[in-house]
Write a structure and sequence with these properties.
homodimer; alpha/beta; inorganic pyrophosphatase (n-terminal core); Diaminopimelate Epimerase, Chain A, domain 1; 2 domains; 6-stranded mixed sheet; 11 strands; 39% helix
Chain lengths: 329, 329
Amino acid sequence: MSATQSQLREAAKLLLESENVLIFTHQRPDGDALGSSFGLKYFLESSGKKAEVFIPGTIPHRHTKLFSGYLSDLPEDKFNAFDTFVSVDCANPARLGAPEFLTIEELRTKRFINIDHHGGNSMGSAFFNLVSGNTASCSELLVKIMCASEITIPEKCASPLLTGMMTDTGCFRFSNTSADTMRNAAILLERGAELEKIVNAVFFSKPLNQMRFENELMREHLKFALDNRIAYACIPPELAKKYDFNIKEDEGLIDLLREIDGVIIAMLLYEGPGGIKISMRSKESRYPVGPVARAFNGGGHELAAGATYEGSIGDAEKALVEKLTQLFA
Amino acid sequence: MSATQSQLREAAKLLLESENVLIFTHQRPDGDALGSSFGLKYFLESSGKKAEVFIPGTIPHRHTKLFSGYLSDLPEDKFNAFDTFVSVDCANPARLGAPEFLTIEELRTKRFINIDHHGGNSMGSAFFNLVSGNTASCSELLVKIMCASEITIPEKCASPLLTGMMTDTGCFRFSNTSADTMRNAAILLERGAELEKIVNAVFFSKPLNQMRFENELMREHLKFALDNRIAYACIPPELAKKYDFNIKEDEGLIDLLREIDGVIIAMLLYEGPGGIKISMRSKESRYPVGPVARAFNGGGHELAAGATYEGSIGDAEKALVEKLTQLFA
């Protein structure tokens, strides 16, 4: 599902016809969620609009050097002052980071613009949806929208959007990276995206306690299945405590398993709110983890997906390894 | 120092006027050395030329999935059958991987084309030099030459050249990455470069023994200086032996130090042939390691450089840390 030029132009037009915009993204925002949100905010502001990003709670430490100035709390009366609501990079209502009083049903009655790159997006705006499942990141989709608007991308947007593009493509290594992706990144570099600053802040910024946590995890808890084609780890809660480390901060953890020679699928399991959190990555298109995640009521992309398992971590491990093994049958 | 269009066209013309080409690169070839060599070989072959790559010894394991079919041994009579000699990605005669009988003085009497992206290149061909110090990789310089030739880049060249581009830019994360770099990568993707295959072979292919070697190195031998702005490790020879691991295979090892939050300069020291091998990286343009490498008779780029130190590893550590510290004075 690719966005057409006319859809991109329509999205740009609707965004620019708004006056006071509230931007949402998914809970536990990653680089693409934040890059999309702030890239859009600065784009709208540079066109004379008002725009705010709403994020419940805090953002991961690694992103605090690049992203600041968002609402974490929003009284209902202030909420009603916005005329347009935009959700970026959020695949479904359950993941939306919105004020508690807001239901998806109410949001759908508003001037609500849904912009996403998750193929199975179910936000279901009654007003306007732009879902492009084959665009590598929501930030890249916004670059396309901005290019379609014929407004030169403001310099302030360039770094947030490049951050998002780099996060979701694993720095242009994942197979969602296309020639278009590279050209859109080139546009952002020309518009002033600060590569050195982004990379040092987001990719070369591993805190020492995280490094030590990862070191022990890989030494003591790495497991393999199916002749090493599956590598996985169940993260003991006490390990994270030992290093005073918040697992949710670690977007790149799973890549330590993925980068091992011969591994095709990498998986992490850990106890989270609401059950065992499962995160999966595949290195080869012919062994997609998307269907496995969906079989456990999860979602994501074909090569990067996740789910929540209700039960013990041991049961989750057994069930998931079995399901993943079937991919190779 | 940037290559002009007329220089690029001239390089393409001279390459295509040759009939039987021998391609050299630097010793201990990395992804850019190999990508440049094989990319050029396939380009020439697709235009009906004969071309061979000469590499003394073996190539790193991680590159064997992508690169094969080179000469490691070349009798003097066969050498004389080549009409043109091309050196790619080789900064100086001391680093050239050439047959033992060949001196630089003799090479300079030949139809010798020197193509490189190291600013201080001293190969000094009397026939033709194309040195572009601000191009991120020699592979990218070859993309530019091929585009200037007006021959569509053959599909077979695309993957080797993208491998080289990705190696020398750290997957488009290092500050040598420009908008042009991204556009040249886009061209290669359109010409059929196999991103998934490259990434799995080169970047997601860490052998288990390497992972365990790195794990112990980071746990037991990581040192800091200057409030963690300098991170470094002296690799004990017995550690590499313990894990049956060849340090020279590990292009990415230094990135484990570089990626730590707050670290600006990363350095590795280990005992090699001819002295203590020193490898340095800087994350910030205002603290270049190039001058430090040159102060120890080494070379490289401003943010990625190396040298060989004659003396004990302890003396090397002391001398280098002192010199690096002066950068921050």
